[in-house]
Amino acid sequence: VHFVESGGGLVQPGESLQLSCVASGFTFTSYGISWWRQAPGKERERIAGITGGGRNTEYADSVKGRFTISRDNFKNTVYLQMNDLKPEDTATYYCYVAIPGDGRINRHWGQGTQVTVSA
């Protein structure tokens, strides 16, 4: 399992970014994918998830109404559209999938992409 995240950067408050996560090494359409983030000194938090078929999504309260998760199953890619960014959104953002196998849940993370929101 391999993820490559991209799209992070430095933006001002109120601006937008779109993160991308290209996946490989597993049957992409069979699994829900989520985006997590971790700010310095804080625990990693789950902020958005999408089911394998893309019909159902869910969001943390902290991003609801501002962020949108989507996926393109032809491109094995999950996106996170982030609008109206705030300084508190500053964090490293990760893709995540949990895949059962060998009698356990195997957790897979991408390398992360940094988002910094600052005036």
What's the SSE blueprint?
Blueprint (H helix, E strand, L loop, with lengths): L1 E5 L2 E3 L5 E8 L8 E6 L6 E6 L6 E3 L7 E6 L4 E6 L8 E11 L2 E6 L3 E5 L2
Parallel strand pairs: 2-11
Antiparallel strand pairs: 1-3, 3-8, 4-5, 4-9, 5-6, 7-8, 9-10, 9-11
General description of the model:
Helix content is 0%, strand content 55%. The chain has no helices and 11 strands. Strands 2, 4, 5, 6, 9, 10 and 11 form a 7-stranded mixed beta sheet that branches.
Q: Could you write a compact summary of the structure shown?
A:
The chain has strands spanning 2-6, 9-11, 17-24, 33-38, 45-50, 57-59, 67-72, 77-82, 91-101, 104-109, 113-117. The chain has 119 residues and is mainly β.
Strand content: over 45%
Major sheet: size, sense and barrel closure? 7 strands, mixed
Cα gyration radius (Å): 14 Å
- Global geometry: globular
Q: Span between N and C termini?
A: 37 Å
- Total E-strand runs: 11
Stretches with pLDDT under 50, minimum 5 residues: none
Helix content: under 10%
